[in-house]
Amino acid sequence: MKKTVILGALTVAGIAAGAASGATLDDVKARGKLNCGVSTGLVGFAAPDANGEWQGFDVGVCRAVAAAVLGDPMAVEFVPTTGQTRFTALASGEVDLLARNTTWTFSRDVDLKFEFVGVNYYDGQGFMVPKELGVSSAKELDGATVCIQTGTTTELNLADFFRTNNLSYEPVPIETNAEAQQQFLAGACDVYTTDASGLAATRATFENPGDFVVLPEIISKEPLGPLVRHGDNDWGDIARWTLNALISAEELGITSANVAELAAAPTNNPEINRILGTEGELGGMLGLDKDWAKRAIMAGGNYGELFEKNIGENTPIGLSRGLNAQWTDGGLLYSPPFR
Ligand SMILES: N[C@@H](CCC(=O)N[C@@H](CS)C(=O)NCC(=O)O)C(=O)O
């Protein structure tokens, strides 16, 4: 088992070393499309709608980058990836960017050689059980069967949590969230564990969400964010500052509704001007034009707009901002300055 894990890591690292470093921006421009790795389907984060059009909070990151780089938020080829396939897809160059509720960890950065460009959702791992199981704490799960997605941090945290608490469990390994949902509803496992946001998103699609409870324990830190390959820092900068532009836009009150007006002429706020290109040369420093951030914000709105539309309290997923509030509101969202 251990051997497979080590070999897997080496294989991915090997491909990373072989993939073109540098010039991702040129490749994307020449192609006229951003290849963006997303999940196979997690409503609210990334899933095709009834018309086959990808929607969601992670999809919003892909569209913002495409808008900044290519001038068109629709110029994205979405590549569905599983917990297992996502890293090979990025390392091999099949995708330019991975925006797939992926946790920033030491080994994914240092060993797999990826660069997380920021965090778009601060999460943690939780547990969901059928109400009829009568369980109110994860510590009561001794001997439970647990549906768990392979190739995830979830798998590792679960083992740690049960070991620390001297509990036993039987894993039911699954590949995708759709499969987890199916198995869990069919009673193939007592418990489904994943990122708490994923539990909320999954439960929202159940016919009777009220028949299931999410237990109070959050057993890990899961900072989820977009990532690129090591070795092309210029491309990493574009992804990082596009995400930061969405976060700063919310902090500064730039929205999809007012961005065109704010970008038409310099305002009395110099940072707004620098972001929107009416002052300074930030776009040029990224190898883009002056309107890059304006287009990114127009694509789906600022961070808060993306959150509210896709996963917020007025959606079936119903997530509150919590840790994902701006630092000015007691949360962890804090973009470095645009200067
Ligand atoms: N954040 C964890 C877990 C990510 C993960 O794969 N979560 C599942 C459950 S929420 C998922 O996104 N599934 C979507 C899919 O199967 O395509 C990680 O990076 O390993």
By helix and strand content, what is the structural category?
A: alpha/beta
Identify the bound ligands: glutathione
Q: Radius of gyration from the CA trace?
A: 20 Å
Q: How many DSSP-defined strands? A: 14
- Compute the separation of the termini in Å: 49 Å
Multimerization status: single chain
Task: Sum up the overall morphology in one term.
Answer: globular
What percent of residues adopt helix (DSSP H or I)? Answer: 25-40%
Elements, N to C (H/E): HHEEEHEHEHEEEEHEHEHEEEHHHHHH
Q: What integer is the average pLDDT?
A: 94
User: Strand count, sense and closure of the main sheet?
Assistant: 5 strands, mixed
Low-confidence stretches: 1-10, 13-20
Number of helices: 14
Q: Estimate the strand proportion.
A: 15-25%
User: Order of strands across the biggest sheet?
Assistant: 10-9-11-8-12
What does this structure look like?
There is one protein chain. By secondary structure, the chain is an alpha/beta fold. The protein has 14 helices and 14 strands. It has a 5-stranded mixed beta sheet with strand order 10-9-11-8-12, with helices on both faces. The chain has a 3-stranded parallel beta sheet with strand order 4-1-5. Helix 3 (57-70) packs antiparallel against helix 13 (292-300) and helix 9 (233-252) packs across helix 13 (292-300). The longest helix has 20 residues, at 233-252. The radius of gyration is 20 Å and the shape is globular. Glutathione is lined by residues 39-42, 82-83, 101-103, 149, 152-154, 176-177, 194-195, 198, 222, 224.
